Amino acid sequence: MYTQVADRVHRLTNGIANFYLIEEAGKLVLVDAGTPKDWAMFGQAVQALGHRVEDLDAVLLTHAHADHTGFAEQARTTAGARVWVHEADEEMARTGKAAASNEAGVTSYLLKGQLYKTFWVLARGGATKIIPIRELSTFGDGETIDVPGQPRVLHAPGHTAGSAVLLVPGRSALFAGDVLCTHNPLTGRIGPQIMPSGLNRDTQQAMRSLDNLSGVKADALLAGHGDPWTGGVGEAIRLAKAAGPS
Ligand SMILES: [Zn+2]
Ligand SMILES: [Zn+2]
């Protein structure tokens, strides 16, 4: 149901999209919020960790895609958690409407079996569209977010305009969202790489944004899709550049 991936950091997954629970001084912070139906999995993990849902202080969204905004609105209304997103993705999270269409459709991936598995899991979880989040707090590049764990924001646009990674230095954990993944949700390829072009607003920008992460030190790179990467951030960037767009 959940696995510890760094000091008091737990990975939850629906098999396609990951989200992460950070424990800090009796409080909880979520990085991303899975699909809407992952609310139940979240509740079970909270209970198993000896917490209550009301301990949830904040939901930090790496970007405003439906497989990451998931149950954020429910967490806000039920647990009273504040929901945070980069200012450039705020409108998409608030309205549920995509700001711009992706550069490539997904039709070129139709021969890949992984595509069907991804869409099946996300549809079953209710993540075919964003559930609008009525009240949002925003963060910008370089900011330290004033929530337990004090995550620092690095803006890395391309996958969406407001895509960001969050560094929690005290845990040596980098939450990469969809800036870097280790499992391609359309092709099934494993290893550090940017997201497939069919899901990106601007793939060339996503590739350039990898440089925004250079110099970051973290033992665990925790992606939105795929297993944790522990081979260093610099090596992940090098491999993602070598892999190129997909
Ligand atoms: Zn995404
Ligand atoms: Zn995603």
Walk me through this protein's architecture.
It is a single chain. The chain contains 7 helices and 13 strands. With 246 residues, the chain is α/β, with parallel strands linked by helices. The strands form 3 sheets. It has a 7-stranded mixed β-sheet. Strands 8-9-10-13 form a 4-stranded mixed β-sheet, with no helix packed on it. Strands 11-12 form a two-stranded antiparallel ribbon. A hairpin with a 2-residue loop joins strand 1 and strand 2. The radius of gyration is 16 Å and the shape is globular. The structure holds zinc ion (ZN) (2 copies). One zinc ion binds next to helix 2.
How many helices? The count is 7
Please state roughly what percent of the residues sit in beta strands, choosing from under 5%, 5-15%, 15-25%, 25-35%, 35-45% or over 45%: 15-25%
Q: What is the architecture at the second tier of CATH? A: 4-Layer Sandwich
Domain count, please report it: 1
- Please tell me how large the radius of gyration is: 16 Å
Q: SSE order, as H and E? A: EEEEHEHHEHHEEEEEEHEH
- Largest beta sheet: what is the strand line-up? 1-2-3-4-5-6-7
Terminal residue distance: 30 Å
- Name the hetero compounds present: zinc ion
What can be said about the biggest beta sheet?
7 strands, mixed
Give the full name of the CATH homologous superfamily: Ribonuclease Z/Hydroxyacylglutathione hydrolase-like
Task: Tell me the total number of β-strands.
Answer: 13
Query: Low-confidence spans: pLDDT under 50, at least 5 residues?
Result: none
CATH top-level class = Alpha Beta
Q: How would you state the average pLDDT, rounded?
A: 96
The helix fraction, in percent, is: 10-25%
